[in-house]
């Protein structure tokens, strides 16, 4: 199964996929945030099974546990987590949210 939201994390400094990065997917609602799913990136830095195969329209949050990833490698890092809020629209299909990561910077975009 491929979930509605997938991700890919690349370690830009080492030039390798970032395996073992913890992830949480939550939905913004009237009570704040409701966690939908949690997981980790695989050996290729990907997670294709983060949550259901369909999501309702709304605003979601994807949190990457980047501090834990760098701590496990005994590398100092500035960001303990990378938090990305994004909108899911009806009829828009799959959402791929990758990040390019280093200890002191990151970039993201809506992938395909």
TrEMBL record:
It catalyses: 5-hydroxyisourate + H2O = 5-hydroxy-2-oxo-4-ureido-2,5-dihydro-1H-imidazole-5-carboxylate + H(+). Residues 1-111 form the Transthyretin/hydroxyisourate hydrolase domain. SUPFAM superfamilies: Transthyretin (synonym: prealbumin). Substrate binds at residues 8, 46, 109. InterPro entries: Hydroxyisourate_hydrolase, Transthyretin/HIU_hydrolase, Transthyretin/HIU_hydrolase_d, Transthyretin/HIU_hydrolase_sf. Its EC number is 3.5.2.17. Keywords: Hydrolase, Purine metabolism. Gene3D superfamilies: Transthyretin/hydroxyisourate hydrolase domain. One of its GO terms (biological process) is purine nucleobase metabolic process. GO terms for molecular function: hydroxyisourate hydrolase activity. It holds the Pfam family Transthyretin. It comes from the Bacteria. Catalyzes the hydrolysis of 5-hydroxyisourate (HIU) to 2-oxo-4-hydroxy-4-carboxy-5-ureidoimidazoline (OHCU). Homotetramer. Belongs to the transthyretin family. 5-hydroxyisourate hydrolase subfamily. This is 5-hydroxyisourate hydrolase. The lineage of its organism: Bacteria, Bacillati, Actinomycetota, Actinomycetes, Micrococcales.
């Amino acid at each position: 199964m491929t979930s509605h939201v997938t991700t890919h994390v690349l370690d830009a400094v080492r030039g390798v996929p970032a395996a073992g990065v913890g992830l949480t997917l939550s939905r913004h609602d009237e009570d704040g945030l409701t966690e939908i799913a949690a997981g980790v990136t695989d050996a290729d830095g990907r997670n294709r099974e983060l949550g259901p195969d369909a999501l309702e329209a709304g605003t979601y949050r994807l949190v990457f546990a980047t501090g834990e990833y760098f701590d496990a490698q005994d590398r100092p890092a500035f960001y303990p987590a990378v938090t990305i809020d994004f909108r899911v629209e009806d009829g828009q299909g799959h959402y791929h949210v990758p990040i390019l990561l280093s200890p002191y910077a990151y970039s993201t975009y809506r992938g395909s």
